[in-house]
Design goal:
alpha+beta; 12% strand; Creatine Kinase, Chain A, domain 2; 17 helices; 408 residues
Length: 408
């Protein structure tokens, strides 16, 4: 058993990024993650499915793979070079199978009912239980790729300060990270359709996702009582064996992971390349840090923010990303702003703060400030009524971005 004491606030971060496997010719998804992981295991004499500092694992469905840092990194930038190498290695494995990794948050025409296969190795029955309860043949379960940030806390006080800051930052994230405008071969009317599907995929048990924005609870004990125990009570009639009786059953936009003393942020769409993914991780992490350090407002003010107000702001950004008006003067005032402002205006101000900038990610920030998030850039090029051929061209372009680590 490890004797490593818990990391304190912002000592490290953990990052997880999901990719899907597609056929190079047809651009359809392919359930090839299992042979990829087997090959990586063989590369490492059975010691794990990793490439250098990056570990690969499966997700709910057999066409989605997750890359994560094997140990927490001091900052997002430290993951950039290892992640690029890891992506290249997996693409090398997939090449003889006429397949490759596809980035971004959703496949534009995948049919979840016909194209997805649950991960076949499920000894604890977790995936089967999710499928039995919810029916995982929907976009919300099988066609969503996200980036997760794990930020550590060392004790109850740090947990409360971190949770208060993360709740307030969540509404800003879709305006920066929206990357899922197309589903079912058409424009969804949303810049971040992934988050709308995320919102509804567990409605059968409402407490699992809650209001997406976590409740204003600021101690571990209160969190367990007010959130986790409520989830377990509401899940029990559907899951009498208690298979889902664990903290990972919590599906809010940020969840406490007491098993690793971290809070996991889950509302970030996967982007087109590692520079974009990690640029977002860096900016979000540093913004949370500034709020924790009370650089804008006090902890008392942060903790007073109402869940419903934050949720409304979040889904305004889900709808129209950076172009949406921030219709909450008090939220603007948190950052010293006033008047009529869009989410783009807010990020324009924040990304000028030296704490949020990083030379490795400056090109990404400029691309965002000039052209908007990936969803905006995709719809600008491929339109609001794209034909299948155009969407295939889009997939080709996104895969090229991932291979070369270039921005779209």
């Amino acid at each position: 058993m490890s004797t490593q004491p818990p990391f304190g606030l912002f000592e490290v971060c953990g990052v997880e990024i999901e990719y899907m496997v597609i056929d190079r010719a047809s651009k359809n998804v392919r359930s090839l993650v299992e042979p990829v992981l087997d090959r990586l295991e063989a590369d490492n004499d059975g010691s794990g499915a990793f490439t250098g500092e990056i570990e690969w694992s499966n997700e709910l469905v057999a066409h989605v793979a997750e890359a994560k840092c094997r140990v927490p990194v001091p900052e997002a930038a430290a993951m950039l070079h290892p992640l690029c190498k890891a992506v290249a290695r997996v693409n090398e494995i997939l090449d003889p199978l006429d397949a490759c990794l596809m980035p971004s948050a959703a496949h534009p025409w995948m049919d979840p009912a016909a194209d997805a296969m649950l991960w076949p190795k499920d000894p604890e029955g977790i995936y089967a239980e999710y499928d039995r309860i919810f029916g995982c043949n929907t976009h919300g379960w099988t066609n969503l790729q996200s980036v997760h940030i794990n930020l550590p806390f060392a004790d109850a006080d740090e947990f409360g300060r971190l949770h208060a800051a993360i709740r307030v930052v969540l509404p800003l994230i879709p305006a920066l990270a929206a990357a899922s405008p197309y589903l079912d071969g058409a424009f969804t009317g949303l810049m971040d359709a992934r988050m709308e599907e995320y919102r509804i995929n567990s409605l059968k048990i409402p407490s699992m996702t809650g209001r997406v924005i976590p409740e204003p609870v600021f101690t571990p004990a209160e969190y367990r009582t007010e959130i986790l125990e409520r989830i377990y009570r509401e899940t029990e009639p559907f899951d009498p064996k208690g298979i889902l009786h664990d903290e990972w059953a919590n599906a809010r936009g940020a969840i406490a992971r007491f098993d690793r003393n971290a809070i996991e942020i889950r509302v970030i769409d996967s982007q087109e390349c590692p520079t974009a993914d990690l640029g977002i991780v860096h900016a979000v992490t540093q913004l949370v840090r500034l709020l924790v350090e009370e650089r804008f407002v006090s902890q008392k003010e942060l903790r007073q923010w109402d869940t419903e107000k934050l949720r409304e702001l979040l889904f305004c950004a889900v709808r129209n990303a950076e172009q949406e008006i921030v219709a909450e003067p008090e939220y603007l005032a948190l950052f010293g702003l006033s008047g009529k402002k869009t989410f783009h205006d807010v990020w324009g101000y924040l990304l000028e703060l030296p704490e949020l900038r990083h030379p490795l990610f400056d090109d990404f920030y400029r691309r965002y400030l000039n052209y908007g998030p990936l969803a905006r850039r995709l719809t600008a090029r491929y339109g609001l009524k794209p034909e299948r051929k155009k969407l295939a061209e889009m997939i080709e372009a996104l895969c090229a971005c991932l291979k070369s680590n270039e921005l779209f």
